[in-house]
Amino acid sequence: MTRIRSLFEKYYHQTATAEEKAELAHLVAGAADEELRELITSTGEQLTETDNVIPARRAEEILAGIIGAPAKPQRRIGRGWFRYAAAAVLLLAVAGGIYFWQQPPAPPSLSAHANDVAPGQTGAVLTLGNGRSVELDSAGSGIVARQSGASAVLRQGGLSYDTTGAAGYSMNTLMTPRGRQFTLTLPDGSKVWLNAASSLTYPTRFTGTERKVTLTGEAYFEVAKNAARPFIVAVNDLEVQVLGTGFNVNGYEDEAETITTLVEGAVLVSRGGEKMKLQPGEQSAAGKAAMRLQRDANIDEITAWKDGNFYFDNSTLPVILRQFARWYNVEVVYEGPVQDRQFFGMISRRESLASVLKLLQAGDIKFRIEGNKLFVQPD
User: Fold this and answer.
1) How far apart are CA 374 and CA 116, in angstroms?
2) Which of 2, 115, 122, 294 is most exposed, with minimal Cβ within 10 Å?
3) 267: nearest Cα among 244, 290, 287, 236
4) For residue 285, what are the β-bridge partners?
């Protein structure tokens, strides 16, 4: 650990030789998580004390340099590990001097008298075809509704359908309020993760030549393959058509664009006469202007929410706080302008609001929780 710390400091101060750069890349590849945690914590404290902060561009250059060093690591490092290393190893302090770690120790509340907000949890509301609503938070395991010969079944925190003997179908809507998320297995076997403040409308049995659902908010889909019956997600003014694949759609109304990110398979995103076919790792962004293509999407960042994490890749404070507002069911109130900072890192969604906010505080920016309101005080 002493050696990796010494090499990292030399690399940052641009005094490392080619051999030392190669050695650093090799050591980073084989370092244990506890060693990396110690490195980022101790080095972060030193940089904070000396006010010697790595700017975002320099941090990216450091990471790119270490990745590109001519090392001969003992094990192959995949693209996902590099994104992890960026948050864990290199103390990626971005344009305001912000640091945070994937699994931070529970910090104290914002102040001794501050309120706090518990993290979101599993839960949803199911609206049946006849308009009746079922609270799934408190419903026990088993059949929660029967309609048109199909049974809606709740088990292990998720909803699925038994369509044995069903002759017709009804339209159902699964809605997650703020502070809730839920998983759903559709009648065709496709699985859906529904993020907070989202809804999905779908039939209890798919008929006809296509499988069409309507989304508001954000969801991740793993679609059951059926070449004869394409799967279509309608979201805002878009349609995302697939045959069998894994992809994420973010269509929140308070975001500037509807983002479709493909993890595996292939999808066709269309809006009016615009069409865009995505390959794995690509995403489409549809705002008021024409759709644009992002070829190298950060899949880890896009899908982190369904795995229980917040992941920020040079994200701005407003983007982060919109996610917090949905998950912690709070209203964000800006009491004045804040600087244009960016953040890089990963935080568990199981932490309380005060805990995650503690990690974002830097410079003169301060937060205050009062009831269900989060006040952001000016710099």
Assistant:
1) 10
2) 2
3) 244
4) 259, 292
How far is residue 130 from each of residues 63, 144, 149, 207, 349, measured CA to CA in Å?
A: 56, 14, 14, 19, 35
Among 59-63, 87-91, 165-169, top mean pLDDT goes to 165-169
Kindly calculate the radius of gyration of the chain based on its CA atoms and give it in whole angstroms: 23
Q: Where, residue-wise, is CATH 2.60.120.1440 in the chain?
A: 121-301
Tokens (6 digits) for 134: 């079922």
Nearest partner of 276 among 303, 238, 329, 235, judged by Cα:
238
Compute φ and ψ for 211, nearest 5 degrees: -115, 105
CATH topology assigned to domain 302-377: Phage tail protein beta-alpha-beta fold (3.55.50)
- DSSP letter, residue 288: S
Burial-class residue 243 by CB neighbours within 10 Å (0-12, 13-18, 19+): middle
Q: What is the pLDDT of residue 250?
A: 97
pLDDT tens, position by position, 192-216: 999 999 999 999 999 989 999 999 9
Integer Cα distance of 54 and 47 in angstroms? 8
Q: Mean pLDDT across the stretch 307-312?
A: 87
CATH 3.55.50.30 maps onto the chain at 302-377
Taking alpha carbons only, the member of 372, 293, 373, 365 closest to residue 333 is 373
Angstrom distances, CA of residue 218 to CA of 2, 199, 249, 301, 302 = 44, 8, 6, 14, 10
Measured CA to CA in angstroms, residue 293 lies from 159, 287, 313, 348 at distances of 34, 12, 18, 29
Instruction: Give me the residues paired with residue 317 across strands.
Output: none
Strands 292-294 and 283-286: antiparallel
Whole-number pLDDT of residue 105: 38
Q: Are 190 and 220 in contact (CB under 8 A)?
A: no
Matching CATH number, 121-301, of 3.40.50.2300, 3.30.460.10, 2.60.120.1440, 2.60.40.10: 2.60.120.1440
Whether residue 254 contacts residue 198, with contact meaning beta carbons closer than 8 Å, is answered with: no
Q: 155 Cβ partners below 8 Å, 6+ apart?
A: 141, 142
Joined together, the tokens standing for residue 200 give 């999905």
Strands 191-194 and 125-127: unpaired
**How wide is the angle at C-alpha 214 spanned by C-alphas 125 and 307, nearest 5°?**
65
